[in-house]
């Protein structure tokens, strides 16, 4: 019966309490098969069989199934009688994609079973699988979730550090040159910082909610690790807020520099206009085609006019320097 849904399953594991691990399929993934162990089933939500399996064979409440397969989700923690629904988001480290285009991971957690679904690949899941393959498996369902959160927070930390380096480079660039495509890069970083903060803030609340739940199968040491992860997440949120403020300052500095350059160009044009305005007036006056203009028959008249114009320019420049306009 479950063979029709094998394509929907990315991987399945059974862990015993002594650290033994084996890969399983859906045919041996019922809750009753994990009496002295726990299982982890990870599904691809893009596969058509995932939704059908969750509705027909997962034994989850319809409300929980709808939350697991929802098109758009926000991080949250929703306790139920049989377990806990935990929805988190991880940074997108897939090639060619933006880190702030965060990937949702939906988790159903019971004492002896974890079901997770995702639409896109999440590097934190891959990191957890590599940990399992190194013979470092979790010993309980809550330890698996804590390990996953730990991988996610490391990826978030690396992303925040990357943005920190980018922002520092832009700060140095603006202070020294303020040329090129800096404005676009600043806007991109600010957008990414805002997006990360928008999803990480409710994620902190979801983890804190999980910490406060009185569930006897969540061990004390795992709660300590969750608290540490939550504290690290708070620190990264504070770093994001600080970087947003720094990026705003850098953007303001860039705007000021661009405004100063524009003002300098306008000022230069104004000086040139002020110098040539009287010259243009005189040459225009001498160029009118009416009788009686002086010097029409004098061969030295042109030289005299040029000398007068040069003298006017020199006098204007001297006055402007005296006024400290130049």
From TrEMBL:
Keyword Cell membrane assigned: yes
SUPFAM superfamilies assigned: CorA soluble domain-like, Magnesium transport protein CorA, transmembrane region
Name of the featured protein: Zinc transporter ZntB
Species the sequence originates in: Oceanospirillum sediminis
Compartments, as annotated in UniProt: Cell membrane
Gene3D superfamilies for the chain: CorA soluble domain-like, Magnesium transport protein CorA, transmembrane region
Family the entry assigns: Belongs to the CorA metal ion transporter (MIT) (TC 1.A.35) family.
Pfam families referenced in this protein's UniProt entry, alphabetically: CorA
Record membrane topology: Multi-pass membrane protein
Residues annotated as transmembrane: 266-288, 300-320
Signal peptide stretch: none
Assigned keywords, A-Z: Cell inner membrane, Cell membrane, Ion transport, Membrane, Transmembrane, Transmembrane helix, Transport, Zinc
One annotated Gene Ontology cellular component of this protein: plasma membrane
Any GO molecular function: magnesium ion binding
Chief site of localization: membrane
